[in-house]
Amino acid sequence: MLALRTSRYSRNACAATPAKAANTTTTRPSHCVYYPQSIFFFKNQTTFNNYNFVTTFIKNITTATSNNINNNTTTTTTITTKFTNFFSHLRFCTDSHNKMTTEQNKKQKLEATESLKVHLRSDKARVPTKGSVLAAGYDLYSSEDAIIPAQGQGLVSTDISIIVPIGTYGRVAPRSGLAVKHGISTGAGVIDADYRGEVKVVLFNHSTKDFEIKAGDRIAQLVLERIVNADIEEISEDQLTATDRGEGGFGSTGKN
User: Fold this and answer.
1) Quick one: which H or E segment has residue 202?
2) Domains of the chain
3) pLDDT tens digit sequence for 179-233
4) In what residue span(s) does the dUTPase-like domain sit (predicted)?
5) Which of 223, 220, 224 is CA-nearest to residue 204?
């Protein structure tokens, strides 16, 4: 931020010294008979888009006004031009910063939402739907014909990209009907909040027959789940709290 404070013109050099705040870079030109008693100072130097330009400008103005110009039209015109260029540049920097801030705000507002945003990447894509009002998952639709071989697997396209609500991730889960009737399950089903690529579904065919998929078929469901993004803290063995289970692993809590 550039602040300009002016007082009346004076032929006497100004003896006042501007206050200098902590962590603030202060630039003050010397005064002369044709220089207003003004104080230029910068706050938060690192946030100004072109600090070097501003300091160079002030040095030029200071040098020009250090001479007794006595209504010299040429020099006055030069100073006026410098002021015009400076404030044009300052306005450009401000407009650029405001535009950047606006774009950042739009992005944050878009991502900080409680709605599931869906982009259809082709005319074959379909918006996920719910089978009932209280259904946990959104049905995902295939955008292509495909065959999942018996005892094999395949990667099926949906041609959609999504933005999940902040604080959640998308989990691709099997559809119960496909699992029971055809032995079809899903794998590798985590969609991170910052993923913007196409959502594809890994399908496993556990049956002894090939499974045929047509474009528009429901192939899986998308469940939104809350997550905690915790910081990692390394601890020693002594800091592991004791529990009844201890190090008991597979099968340690019972036969089934």
Assistant:
1) strand 200-205
2) 2-111 (no CATH), 117-229 (2.70.40.10)
3) 999 999 999 899 999 999 999 999 999 999 999 999 999 999 999 999 999 999 9
4) 124-254
5) 220
DSSP one-letter string for 29-42: PPP-TTS-SEEEEE
**Alpha carbon 253 to chain centroid, angstroms:** 45
Measured between alpha carbons, how far is 164 from 135 in angstroms, rounded to an integer? 17
Distances (CA, A) of 237 to 217, 234, 242: 51, 10, 11
CA distance 27 to 38: 11
CA neighbor of 152 nearest in space, from 204, 86, 87, 195: 204
Place of tokens 């079809």: 184
**Torsions phi, psi of 108, nearest 5?**
-65, -40
